[in-house]
Every structure is written in C-alpha cells, then in structure tokens.
Design brief:
Length: about 425
Amino acid sequence: MPRRPRCRAVETAAAALLLLALTACGSRLPESDFGPAARSPAPARGGGAPIPVGIITSATSPVGGNAFTGPRDGAKAYFDRLDARGGIGGRPVEVHRCDDGGSGVGDNECVRKLVDEDKVVALVATTALDYAGAPRVSRAGVPDIGGQPIGAAYDTWPHLYGIYGSLAPRDGTPGWGGTLYGGTEVYRYFKREHGARTAAVVSYNQAASASYARLVERGLRAEGYKVVTEQVDFALPDFRAAAADLKQQGADLVFDALDTHGNARLCRAIDAVGARITAKVTNVQNWTSTVPEDYKDSPACRNALWATGASRDYEDVSRPAVREFRDATKNLATHSQWQLEGWAAAKWFTDAARACAATGITRGCLDGQVGRARGYTAGGLLLPVSFEPSATPPTSRRACLSVARWQDGEGWVPQGDMNSTCFDDVPQLPYTP
C-alpha cells in the first residue's frame, strides 16, 4: 500500500498560517455565546444516550468569514445523515459546535467548554487558526480526530490525529526537536507529467510570505527546476510587473505565497500581459466551487488552476464515497475539498466509535482505535493515513497525491487516480514551523 509523508499537511499549514500573518489585525473573542445555538440536538430515536462530540472552528476570525468553516460543515452533514439512519448502535451523535474566533483565548475557552463542561468523547474536524488549547486537549486524553493541521499541533501532541497522519514522535515538541519535514512530490508531478522545467514563486515582501516562498523554492530546486522569484510590495503590490517578468523568463508553473485576494490579482495580471502557463498551482484550502467568482476577471489563468492534496476530488462523483458526500451536501451553497475532508473526519470518528460500541464509546477506546490507524482511507476518500512515530525523521519517502484541474463548465476535473499518482524516493526537506 502506498505510504504518504507528512508533506501534504506542510503545504496546507504553511498556506493557512500565511493567511494569518498577512491579514491579522488583532484577535477577537468568539461571537458564539456557547449556548443552545452552538449545539445540534440529536433527534430522539431511542436506543441510548446521545454521544457528545465537539467541533472547534475559527468561523469568525481575522482571516474572514467562511475561510475555515468547510471541515465543520462537512462533518456536520455526515453526522446529520448518520443520525437520520439510526446513529451508532441506536445512539445519536450530539454535536457541540464552538467558534473560537480565530484567537488563542477563544480557542482555550472552546476547549474548556467542550472538554470539561460538555464532556465530549472526542473532537472532530478541528479547524483552528490558533490552536492554543491543544495541550489541554492532549492532557485530558481527548482524541482530536481528523483535524486540519493549521500549525504544528498535530505533529506535537499525543491524542491529536490530523487528517493527513504523522510520523513525528508527538512528545510535546514539534516534529523532531522542533523541525518538521515536507516532500517535493507536487513539483515532481508537474515535471514528470507535464514536462515543466521553469517555475515562478511569487511572494510579498513580508516575513511569513517570504519564508514560505523560500520553502517552495527549495523544493523546486531539489527537483531540478529553474526558479524565478518574484516579490511584490505587501502594501502596494505591482502584480503586472511580476507577471511580465515571469512571462519573459518562460515560467511553466506559478506557485505563490499570497492570500486569496493577492492570488486573484496575480491571475488577472497574468492574463493582462498574455502569459501562457502550464499551471497556476494552488492548495487544498482553495479547492472550492467559488473559483468562477474568485477569478472572474482572468479566464485564461482560471482555466490553468490546478490543486493538489491528499483526498479524493469532491467533484469525482464516479466514486460512490464522493457521491454519498455530494448527495448529503447538495443543499450547501458552495462545495469544497475541506468539506469533504470534514466529512471524512466524521466518518473516521464513526468507524472508531462502532469498533468501541461493544465495550463502551469512551475517550480511551476511541483514542486507541484511531492511534492504531495504519492506512486508514475513510472508505477511499483519503490517501492512506497512518500514525507510526519514528525516532528519526525521514530523509525520503514514497509519496502519492491527488490532483485536479479547473475547467469552466466542468469544475474541478480529477487528473488520474490518487492511489497510483505516486513517486518513490521523494526528498523530505526540513523546515521550522
């Protein structure tokens, strides 16, 4: 079975942390009052007491509304369908939602409320901009199942199980002695499959943006690319000049360390100067159905958008597992890859809970079930996920990835099968979170 490194989380985490660094204007407390509106009462079906589960989301954060709500919405859709079909052994799942406001203070309050007051047996699909409460979750022995690694928490603390797995010891220190590792398979994919040789990396003249851009540059160079670096002023970015230069230098690919607004402006500039690129590569966080609106002024660049990740394309309804997700979420205004991953996280919890039903659905039993995961796929929605702590960091790994391309009129079109789009001996490059 193909084994996948931690690197998919690297790209997602770096991009999400970048959003915070680029747009943060101070923290804010949760807008939720943790009252009845934050809880989804399960239907009365009999068969036993409800199973309390918590979902922490930075729904109202400095990054902006809806930036982090996808996993929550996907998980909630899964639990709603589960309860409509009888729950787990006749017991409904009672979902307690908490908006941490994107702040460490708010996150700690959410953890206190859910862990100590609501006595949840697990957290599911956590998507926290500042997961300050992670140590408290770990000390309480509450399994956090299928969370998004926006930061290093899922490679630091025991009992936390990120949606992409981890090889790190998780002994209270990030990664291996404070160092994490990420792979280069995305760059290898475009080199092998599309003959790309020159890549541009566009960033702001801002610390977090520049740091992430350097990580991308290192990966590209490790795969033998000629790298064109373009840095624009954060306050007054001249994207047209950057686009003209990457056109002149013949860039096949464009990567970036920008926020969503910056990406849209960059694409508009690429179209304006007539640059023809093989791919404008984005990450799982931007793998959404809102592309036509986000890139409405740049049709050529829009149709050169590619996304890579570690889960099956949410548009690939030829797959029964994806079809079930889409059927359950058909009333949502938009769809995204993060919604599908939240759905997968809820399924992961459910599979563990069913395995525990005979002896008791407790924090300890759930933690044991998830912690022993070796190649879990959520019914084919995820690349195989494992938690196999290694005393030493990997230098290279076999790596697989999911790839999709945006095409007007069709949406995100899967490019091959993620379980066979694999590479051997992919370098694992160190970085500091």
